[in-house]
Amino acid sequence: MNALQITNQVPFAASIYDWLTLNQVNIQAFEATSHQYDVHYLAWQMVRKERNPYFVNGTGFEGYFVGTCPTPESALTQILAISQQILENIALLHRFEYQFRSMLMKTLVGEKYNLRAVYEWNALLGEALTRLRWRAMQDLEAAAFREETYRLIGVADRFSEIHYLNDTRPLRQEYFVVHNTQGTGHRLLVNSDGLKTQDQDAWLVAQSVGRFGHPLVRTCLHREIQDHGLRAA
Questions:
Q1: What is the pLDDT of residues 151-175, one digit of tens each?
Q2: 213-233: b (≥16 Cβ within 10 Å) or e
Q3: Integer CA distances (angstroms), 190 to 57, 63, 87, 113, 229, in order
């Protein structure tokens, strides 16, 4: 089966590497623990990069709308609504914490690595996915799309695990996603500049929030909270 090989830098690679060094964590053991999250991240990346039914530059959310959104435009409306809800939740939860809200946006795009901000984005992503998974369970087409995505990940060992290149710093990764098997027709290339001003931040969230589901990010958060509790870095 044809597959696309992805080789790139791990999200927040330098910060994670520094955290591992500071806490004297064995990197091989840390990576081994993180593999429990690989399949979910790879499914997200497969939808985002190759198996996207709506967009050339996907987000990872698209599979949840198969069967309910007949066009890319309708899917875009739904995804922007999800991101707008996330931004509204942030504004509500941190109404007067202007500095932290700025840190959240800087962390979102990878300019900063703030533990509290990473934890919050991870939680917001988890909440959004929980709602979407529940809705997708009620839709046969969305459920079938999800099952097929996970089946494709499991057809070969090389598709089901992320390989880390430990001879490099910052940390780099290598993984495979199956080439476009969806057989979709028209797919939309979303141009952020063509969106309304209030939708541009929402699209940025949709495009970037998946990084907080990366296996190393999740493992780092779990380990830090387990050992020390959540600390505002």
A1: 999 887 778 999 998 766 779 999 9
A2: bbbbbbbbbebbeeeeeeeee
A3: 7, 17, 20, 27, 39
The two tokens of residue 186 are 């028209």
For 115-151, write each residue's pLDDT tens digit.
Answer: 999 999 999 999 999 999 988 888 999 999 999 999 9
Question: Which helix (DSSP H) or strand (DSSP E) does residue 87 occupy?
Answer: helix 72-93
| φ, ψ dihedrals at 62, nearest 5° | -60, -35
The Cα 182–Cα 146 span in angstroms is 12
Helix-, strand-, coil-residue percentages of the chain, each rounded to 5: 60, 10, 30
Angle at 209 between CA 205 and CA 211, to 5 degrees: 145
DSSP conformation class of 210 = G
pTM of the shown model? 0.91
The mean pLDDT of the chain is 91
Residues 6, 164: contact at Cβ < 8 Å? Answer: no
Domain ranges of the chain: 3-228
Cα–Cα distance measured from residue 90 to residue 153, given in angstroms and rounded to the nearest whole number: 34
**Residue 104 DSSP code:** H
